[in-house]
Design brief:
The protein has helices at 11-27, 51-57, 62-68, 71-91, 104-115, 135-138, 157-174, 197-209, 222-232, 246-252, 265-269, 314-329, 357-370, 387-405; strands at 4-9, 31-36, 97-102, 123-127, 144-147, 187-192, 213-218, 238-241, 273-276, 282-285, 300-304, 307-311, 335-340, 375-380. With 406 residues, the protein is α/β, with parallel strands linked by helices.
Length: 406
């Protein structure tokens, strides 16, 4: 079946480039559906969805936007409209993929639209901003961001190849059929870091043997945010939140924060959760030269050339314990917190670079002091990656899930 690719962009300023991309996609055998999000002039060719329709869907009026010539207002309105229309097109089954290209304004409109679409739906942005921090562009969705290399201003020997590659990529993604499992299993979310991998790997195997499908999220900020969104969307039946390290980055100022609402969705939804202190011994930074000067005297560990870890202090860990307790105390479903008394990561055990019993004790004591009666506290005299700890974490979650299903 011929696939349809939506092209979303500002045709007033990028009309020639979109005409080229449209032709390349159609040459590969796909249909196109063009959505115009430009407000400063007439498009060079007729789109399938006009800028006036996009503005209306965004709660605005194209003539008013043109008259005001307020770029910020125009981008905001067109972004809302593009998001609403793209979501509708996907829901109606009218498109199989979406592609966009642009600079700052075009990228922000495209990002808003694509972040409104389901995970797994093919999305690609060719952007001049792709070589920097693409977190705001991607959000918590699987958006492929391709560097444009040169500005999107005319078709030349470089841009023609980049856009042709983009056309091939989006047509290829549109043609990939969803892999169907033999049977849909209940979904459990788990959080993992390199320093908690053995624990989560063992626990995942136990959960899978019990009939659950486990989605493992890398606790790098975007991983935690994505997991929280999927929980709120109702996809997840239980959470094995072994690795809560993103809370340390949020508190101290590391680069892998998942925001202030991490560790809240499962409690709000009332689904079973087993939580631990995985990698709360560390805050994440980039290469050593990127670490703020105020942390120069701290205990640091070079994880790799691009990642430097900083050991959390007793004071920071006490604050983290209070934060975790405050969040878990609000949970409306079965909640367990597990304490691994011999270390919260593979580098926090005796003889390892982040071994600091005083810092761990400050975390555990704050938790014991502040956790309310609705949270079950389990202490094991092991480190977090011990097979006994991993198996018990999985067992406790399975037990809670079984109780809910009865």
């Amino acid at each position: 079946m011929t696939k349809t690719v939506a092209l979303l962009g500002t045709l007033d300023s990028k009309g020639g480039e979109y005409a080229f991309l449209k032709a390349r996609i159609e040459a590969l055998g796909a249909r196109t559906l063009v959505i115009d999000a430009g407000v400063l002039g007439a498009p060079p060719f007729q789109p399938d969805i006009s800028a006036a329709e996009v503005a209306k869907a965004g709660g605005g009026d194209l003539e008013t936007l043109v008259a005001r010539r307020d770029r910020g207002e125009a981008v905001a309105v067109m972004a809302r409209g593009a998001a609403a229309l793209a979501a509708r097109l996907v829901a109606e089954g009218r498109i199989d993929a979406i592609i966009a290209m642009g600079g700052g304004g075009g990228t922000s409109i495209a990002a808003a639209a694509m972040q409104a679409l389901p995970v797994g739906f093919p999305k690609l942005i060719v952007s001049t901003l792709a070589s920097g921090d693409v977190g705001p562009i991607v959000g918590v969705k699987d958006i492929l961001v391709m560097p444009s290399i040169v500005d999107i201003a005319g078709i030349n020997r470089l841009s023609s190849q980049i856009l042709s590659n983009a056309a091939g990529a989006i047509v290829g993604m549109a043609g990939v059929e969803r892999v169907k499992q033999a049977a849909e299993k209940p979904l459990v979310a788990a959080t993992m870091f390199g320093v908690t991998t053995p624990c989560v790997t063992k626990a995942r195997a136990v959960l899978e043997d019990a009939g659950y499908e486990v989605l493992v999220f890398h606790a790098t900020g975007s991983g935690g945010r994505t997991m929280e969104e999927l929980i709120r969307a109702g996809f997840i039946v239980g959470v094995l939140d072994i690795t809560t390290t993103e809370l340390a980055d949020e508190l101290v100022g590391g680069v892998l924060s998942a925001g202030p609402h991490r560790l809240e969705a499962a409690g709000e939804k009332g689904i079973p959760q087993v939580v631990s202190a995985g990698a709360l011994d560390m805050v994440n930074f980039g290469a050593p030269e990127t670490i703020p000067a105020k942390f120069a005297d701290r205990t640091l560990y070079r994880h790799n050339p691009l990642v430097t870890l900083m050991r959390t202090t007793p004071e920071e860990n006490a604050a983290l314990g209070a934060i975790i307790a405050q969040k878990l105390n609000r949970a409306t479903g079965p909640t367990v917190f597990m304490i691994p008394k011999q270390g919260v990561s593979s580098i926090d055990m005796q003889g390892k670079p982040f071994h600091d019993p005083a810092a761990d004790a400050a975390l555990f004591e704050a938790l014991k002091k502040d956790l309310a009666g609705n949270v079950r506290l389990v202490e094991l005299d092991t480190d977090i990656n011990d097979e006994v700890f991993a198996a018990e974490a999985a067992r406790l979650l399975i037990e809670a899930l079984d109780d809910r299903s009865e």
